[in-house]
Amino acid sequence: MEVSPPINAGDTIQAVDADASPAATPDLSGGPYWLQTMFLEGENKCLDGNQVADDAPLGGAAYMNDCSDAAGMLWTIVPDAEAGYYSLQTQSPEGASLCLEGNNLAEGADLNGGAFMKECEAATGQTWRFVESEVAGYYRLQTYPVGEVNKCLEGNRLAAESVLAGAAFRDNCLNVSGQLWKIVTPGEATATGETAEEPAAAEEPATTTEEGATTFANVSWTGGQASAAIDLVQGVQAVDVSTAEPATMEFGDGYYWLQTRFLESQNKCLDGNEMVDGAVLDGAAYMNDCGEAGGMLWKFVPTADGYYQLQTQSLEGAGKCLEGNETKETSVLQGATFMDDCSAVTGQEWQFVESEVEGYYRLQTAFKAPENMCLEGNRLAEESVLAGGAFQDNCLNVTGQLWKIVPFDEAAAPAEMMPIRGTGRVIGVNKPGDAAFDAFTPAAGDRLETGWYTPIADDSEVGVVAGEQYNILIITQPNNNNAQAFILWEVEDPATESALTYIQSEIAVMVDGSEGRQLRRGDNVEFDIQPNTAVPNASAGSLDVTMDDFVNGNTAGLFSFFTE
Fold first, then answer.
1. Are 8 and 501 in contact (CB under 8 A)?
2. Are the beta carbons of 434 and 477 closer than 8 angstroms?
3. Which residues are 116's β-sheet partners?
4. Could you read off the pLDDT of 204-258 as tens digits, one per residue?
5. Residue 552: is it exposed, middle or buried by C-beta count within 10 angstroms (0-12/13-18/19+)?
6. Predicted model pTM
7. How far apart (Å, rounded) are the C-alpha atoms in residues 159 and 217?
8. What angle do CA 223, 225, 227 make, to 5 degrees?
9. Which of 211, 320, 349, 557 has its CA 20 to 30 Å from the CA of residue 247?
């Protein structure tokens, strides 16, 4: 699977505790229905039950297809004997009794974990409940039982670079619009007609919809929605490191800081913590301000079988080692990593795997490496997974899983940041339903988010190359039919790039004289980036970014925004 650059899972994409929500009872007296996600409803995609067969798309996994009257997209939602649960059946094939079965995302699972149609039976994977989401009219779908797994069905874009190439699958419940499902009576949305046996992939970086609006093949707008995620084709991707050879590490007798790429610009380090009354997060390891405290000074002790035990300066005398855990309610600290008595258990045996970013590693335990699990550092915040405790998650392309090992004798508090310049260019503007829309006028309060963009075709006019990966900044005006501007950007400073990747903000200040300035495709832009001193009590590492339109050798200030 192609690996895209990271998304900060602890920042933009947040966990949602759907397990704790009661089952909803939507009105299902009619039918059959289409099942659409908020992510792809704008492209008129519906869940296709498919048929498991060698020659079927994705081998038969359910996937998002162009909505039509095809029987595989017409769903009957049948109440189950378990109160509040349902089985999901399609009208295809004729005479068969097939139900949608949720699966575990794993290499050895059927269809590697994609949801699929199977003969109806009293199986928990076929027993679904609907949970009201934070967006009225949309639901999360979960299989029975709940309470420990917090998994939700996710609809995906059919593309080689998508998770499972586009199959619907169960993932951790997150605030992503691919997990928000709408139950639609066919005819209430515009059908596109019968679908081809194998849906074709887009061949151009931009296409024209039936309404005439230009859309970018790798970007789906989510303007004005409560789902806080940026929906890009690549999104959060699985990274298979289960078969990777551990890196050969050379550690001296000194101590080290452990930093993630996600939070290194904020000078955060892994704190081993101690499980005592009153401890932060009850003793879970977490990302703390880097310093000389012994809980952040790590020693790597080799084991006889090639792994390492991780000890902190403050607890090595007490014989404590970092233990990786299984993230579930019944685990110690619900699955957060913690310091435990050193012993010959596989949860304390760690290996380092080189990542796609030079100088950064993924950390795995012998316990969970076969399941492709990696240690993830998180932001200390109530809304973060486990409120910020470090935990083991599926190996993903997120910067919270990319670890840098910093010798403490070389570590120093970061110097005061000098203003940094960045450059960019506008690759397009878009307003759904308005093919003539060619100029975007930013305004205070417009929503702003950043991510990554991978074009699928060369575009010499704006200088992008197919398959390359670019930082992208998206400005959205929810009150203007979700009009958007798409801006590629780059800076030379890796820490600043990391801090600006996958943030959410809004235009805070219109620079004097810049009101009414328009952005057009092909415009060049410049960024001035400096520490945020404009917002009282701004968090450490917060940045103030001013973006200037660059026209005929002169800059005209447009707007400023802040990171948190």
1. yes
2. no
3. 61, 101
4. 223 222 222 233 333 333 322 222 222 332 345 678 888 888 998 888 788 999 9
5. exposed
6. 0.47
7. 11
8. 115
9. 320
